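Q: What would this complex look like in 3D?
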Amino acid sequence: MMRTIRYLLQKEFKQIFRDKSILRIILIIPIVQLLLLPLAANYEVKNINLSVVDNDHSVYSNLLISKITASGYFKLQSYDASFKKAMGNIESDRSDLILEIPQNFENNLIRDNEEQLFVAVNAINGVKANLGGAYLNTIVRNFNGDIRLQLITPQKINPMPVIEITNANWYNPFMNYHLFMVPGILAFLVTMIGGFLCALNIVKEKEIGTIEQINVTPIKKYHFILGKLIPFWLIGLVVFSIGMLISYLVYGIVPLGSIAMLYGFVAVYLLAILGFGLLVSTFCQTQQQAMFIAFFFVMIFILMGGLFTSIDSMPPFAKIIAGLNPVSYMIDVMRMIVLKGSGFDDIKFHLLKIIGFAVVLNSWAILNYRKTT
Amino acid sequence: MKAVELNEISKTYGKEKTLAVDAVSFSIDEGELFGLIGPDGAGKTSIFRILTTLLIPDGGSATVDGLELVKDYKKIRSRIGYMPGKFSLYQDLTIEENLNFFATVFGTTVEENFELIRDIYVQIEPFKTRRAGKLSGGMKQKLALCCALIHEPKILFLDEPTTGVDPVSRKEFWEMLKRLKSKNITIVVSTPYMDEAALCDRIGLIQNGKMLSIDKPDEIIKSYQNKLYQIKALNKYALLKDLRAMENTLNCFTFGEYLHISFKYESDKTSIELINSLTSLGHSQIEIREITPGIEDCFIQLLKN
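A: Here is my prediction, written as structure tokens for the whole assembly.
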């Protein structure tokens, strides 16, 4: 029995290493994805094009404008005489935001202690508009605070109690997006390589007809399946290691938690993903079918797995889907161990769920795999 | 004990219940070379897939090497060798690796049963490090035969082994089968080529999932009920049309440069009368001669009935 499995593995590895294009994909995908995606996927919005309509032309309005442009987030696109003109800039997509400073801005601000600013946002690009508006708010608030300090002579006891909020970004003090993205992308990588390769490989045997020849042999079902799972399980771990190495060399990311635990979790997670690939392969007759079905699921897994958008902000039905999505647990655990240094106690429920996925997906696949039709 | 025995085996496909195998019964003796002859889509491959435990029949029962088909399918698998119609070895493994692989999955080694495949293997041995996908059609077929034989099966199932193979390789292949037969291996082979039928011990003619006739090739030929003539004239197409229009013609079809024809009523004068009437229809250079029918003639006649 061991001899059969050993020989099946030998054959599988020979085939994998002879398929040069697959081998290249295995090596190149992690490198390209890890170099490209974290650098491109950045939530920080910069270069927001701003149009200013200054109806006041005072010292304070100038001060405000220079404070805004000095923040680095905004690019002063135009300095318009009227709101209408500024609107024209938004319509022609040259600017994203309009800040209108009303007449008598300075006077009102000093005399009445109160003034209103008008901000119009081009919401076509929702993220840019939202964040731009929020940045602008913060800057104006700071500006306001600065003025108060200058105008009001400080008293021993402040008559108006002020609550000021400062924040600190724990686990990622500089809000470094690479630190946030890279572990997630690593999870994504392992999913793609494991799921796709496994599904396609088995369907290829069906397509070429070699499975026919295998099926008339006394090979046991679990021999055949183990012979398929083990090679891709190992490849998955190799790809993961390459990814870890790149994230260390390029981004300087060293997991805060135990590396052994990380590998342990990935090892179990790969079993679940390979089970998924296996299941897909039992439903398909051609590689094209398998490719599309696997692509469909992996797409949903990734987009709803919390890699790009937070699961916490999803509507309830999406949270349920995310709960049934093994990738979301993987991404979560990756971030927990790498960024936070979480221990076994923190991830044990994740692990339990992934074990559940592995058991269910693999048994379903084995039940569904038939040697006879 | 019979090597293979089928009893009312049926198989339908799909929702439309297309009948691929229609209550087929026959048996094959041990050490026999049995041919399943029929056109494409007759149900040959379905019968092969049922007997090799790849397809579960909808009805009927069968035994292979004395073992119950459905119940003992696991045991059957180690006693049979199967060579599917489509080349289905690993194209990215070499000849040697394929052979070793199949020996291993059957729990044996190449050395153990080398005697059986020696004759065939020596022909492809010079290329043993070449990948199977890069071999010529004839070599692929020899490799497939080696792989099907490597575990010393008692019964060998060959599904259209000579389709798409050149005439010389085909001849060689049948000689190999004869040698295997002498080693007391039962061989079941299917083919669409009628000329190969004569090389089998017994043949079964199959059409639309039904067995038309099962017998020795000679007996099938003897059972041809009418006299058969071959006929030739200058304008072959006009001749065919005219002959088919004649009332007395039972059947008439082209066969190489001749037409083969049988008549409904026959007398001593039939051929002379025929020549006369054809001459009056404007045909020239008419030749007619009585011949012994071949398997193909029998097959066509069976189809007509």
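A: To summarize the key features: The CA atoms of residues 17 and 24 of chain A lie 10 Å apart. The beta strands of chain A are 48-54, 74-80, 97-101, 118-121.
Q: Very helpful, thank you.
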